């Protein structure tokens, strides 16, 4: 019989093994109440496992375990913690295939284009942060020669991490790897739609981390996430999800006066000037809009401003590219585009397509839904490229979080910049041009936390990632994110006289 921790490439078997459990204090355990909820694969809408239905009692157990473990974890040297986190990265790299398959099963994201890639970014994030232990350093302040004055960087204690379902492995890694290197213990509340792959990661890593340093709970937001945020021993909350829930989390954290990082929504503009390399810009729109992730990305290029001189050619080429992408079984290697995560999101996306049409936009539907009998009930939505859209319309202002982008015509550079900034969000943006002045001017004038020129790369470890205004607070993914968000600074002054 194979060891339960050796990679298992059958995601249904793995899902069964993890069914109905949290991971608290190093052990897989059921919910205190014994309650569970179904984990549904959106490609077939079959229940593939149960998840433990976490509530306050489970939160109390997990936070107590984390608090106890944190005391000895924080006493290890920072380099030693870093080495263990880097070792986590090495071990996870050996599980990329199984984690990719499991995430494809539970989220409906295609294995080749999305899920396997996400699993390798997870491993990479641990490797990246594992090398940063010795950066947890303070400064000395030269007040006078008879006094040693210095700042010391300390962990906060127990960190509560609340994650969404769209890229759960990567988003979890970007929160917990820096938190743990900095000497904190973590309690993760997984998204109700995608509790399995992150639980598997926790199970794997608990073979080398001391019990209680990394705990994970599954459950609903109000019943499991809210008590985690409110728990008196949670000293920091890091959250990714909707603006609406982000505000609830922020208010609850304010009651305890604890720091919060919020990574919220977006309606990211992409500006394509008339002189842009058209082929590259079209490819950039496909990547930027995350069509392979069914557009379920907070940085999705969901407002594409295209200069009137190339508008029609751009739309035609973009449609042809997306038409050529294959929608199908997420676990099939030939599939480019999988499914929407849940019925709730499916209905939200459908309703926005109707709203756009009612507002007068033209919905150019792309690609084809799979006709295979097994997948006919799957949550497939044909990608939509809206043309004839006004920047004031709801489909151009509100986050759809589906494979729906808006192409908007413009005449002048200044007009495009103003339209790009006319949004409550400020997460990401890109400009496509061969004119250096326009490119640099746009990087200065666009009001967003990430501005790219002639590319639309996804988040990667090392970059300073985070939005302005309604898109959130704080940064993730970088060294600075670890130092600013998962530590506190103590001033120490020693009289030497
Ligand atoms: P959500 O923000 O409600 O859920 C995100 C996480 O917060 C989940 O783990 C959820 O259980 C938890 N949560 C919910 N209510 C909570 C509460 N009162 N206290 C503590 N935790 C709570 O997002 P949802 O419902 O999954 O999706 C709704 C919309 O949010 C999407 O259509 C999309 O527009 C946006 N969204 C944005 C994401 C991003 O990457 N910025 C990710 C997921 C959703
Ligand atoms: Mg919600």
What does this protein look like?
The chain has 16 helices and 21 strands. β7, α7 and β8 form a beta-alpha-beta unit. It folds into 2 domains: about 10-265, Aldehyde Dehydrogenase, Chain A, domain 1 (3-Layer(aba) Sandwich), CATH 3.40.605.10; about 270-460, 3-Layer(aba) Sandwich (Aldehyde Dehydrogenase, Chain A, domain 2), CATH 3.40.309. By secondary structure, the chain is α/β, with parallel strands linked by helices. The strands form 6 sheets. Strands 13-14-15-12-11-17-18 form a 7-stranded mixed β-sheet, with helices on both faces. It has a 6-stranded mixed β-sheet with strand order 8-7-6-9-10-20, with helices on both faces. It is about 40% helix and about 20% strand. It has helices at about 10-20, 55-75, 80-95, 95-105, 110-130, 170-180, 195-205, 220-230, 245-255, 280-290, 310-325, 345-360, 395, 415-420, 435-445, 480-485; strands at about 20-25, 25-30, 35-40, 45-50, 145-155, 160, 185-190, 215, 235-240, 260-265, 270, 305, 360-365, 385, 405-410, 425, 430, 450-455, 470, 470-475, 485-495. It binds 1,4-dihydronicotinamide adenine dinucleotide and magnesium ion. The site of 1,4-dihydronicotinamide adenine dinucleotide has 28 residues, from α8, α9 and α12. 1,4-dihydronicotinamide adenine dinucleotide binds near residues 163 and 220.
């Amino acid at each position: 019989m194979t060891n339960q921790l050796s990679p298992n490439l059958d995601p249904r078997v793995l899902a069964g093994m993890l069914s109905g459990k949290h991971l608290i204090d190093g052990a897989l355990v059921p919910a205190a109440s014994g309650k569970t909820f179904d984990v549904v694969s959106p490609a077939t809408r079959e229940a593939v496992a149960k998840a433990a239905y976490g509530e306050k009692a489970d939160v109390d157990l997990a936070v107590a375990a984390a608090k106890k473990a944190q005391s000895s974890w924080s006493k290890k040297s920072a380099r030693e913690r870093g080495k263990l986190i880097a070792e986590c990265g090495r071990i996870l790299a050996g599980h990329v295939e199984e984690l990719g398959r499991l995430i494809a099963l539970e989220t409906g994201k295609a294995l080749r284009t999305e899920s396997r890639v996400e699993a390798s970014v997870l491993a990479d994030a641990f490797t990246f942060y594992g090398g940063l232990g010795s950066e947890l350093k303070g400064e000395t302040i030269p007040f006078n020669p008879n006094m040693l004055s210095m700042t010391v960087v300390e962990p906060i204690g127990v960190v509560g991490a609340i994650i969404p379902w769209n890229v759960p492995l990567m988003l979890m890694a970007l929160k917990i790897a820096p938190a743990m290197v900095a000497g904190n213990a973590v309690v993760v509340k997984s998204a109700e739609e995608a509790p399995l792959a992150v639980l598997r990661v926790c199970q794997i890593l608990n073979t080398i981390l001391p019990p209680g340093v990394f705990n994970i709970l599954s459950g609903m937001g109000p019943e499991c996430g809210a008590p985690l945020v409110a728990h008196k021993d949670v000293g920091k909350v890091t959250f990714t999800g909707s603006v609406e829930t982000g505000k609830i989390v922020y208010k609850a954290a304010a009651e305890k006066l604890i720091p919060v990082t919020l990574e919220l929504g977006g309606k990211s503009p992409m500006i394509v000037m008339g002189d842009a390399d058209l082929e590259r810009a079209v490819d950039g729109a496909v990547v930027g809009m995350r069509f392979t992730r069914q557009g379920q990305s907070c940085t999705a290029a969901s407002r594409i401003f295209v200069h009137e001189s190339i508008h029609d050619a751009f739309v035609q080429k973009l449609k042809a590219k997306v038409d050529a992408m294959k929608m199908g079984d997420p676990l099939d290697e030939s599939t480019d585009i999988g499914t929407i995560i849940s019925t709730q999101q499916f209905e939200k996306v459908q309703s926005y397509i109707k709203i756009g049409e009612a507002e007068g936009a033209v919905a150019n539907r792309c690609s084809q839904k799979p006709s295979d009998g097994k997948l006919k009930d799957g949550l497939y939505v044909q990608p939509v490229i809206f043309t004839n859209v006004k920047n004031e319309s709801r489909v151009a202002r509100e986050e759809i979080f589906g494979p729906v982008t808006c192409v908007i015509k413009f005449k002048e550079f200044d007009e495009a910049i103003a339209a790009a900034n006319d949004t409550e969000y400020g997460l990401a943006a890109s400009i496509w041009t061969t004119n250096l002045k326009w490119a640099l001017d746009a990087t200065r004038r666009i009001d967003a936390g990430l501005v790219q020129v002639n590319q639309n790369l996804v988040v990667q470890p090392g970059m300073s990632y985070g939005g302005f205004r309604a898109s959130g607070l704080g940064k993730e993914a970088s060294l600075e994110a670890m130092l600013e968000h998962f530590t506190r600074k103590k001033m120490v002054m020693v009289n030497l006289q």
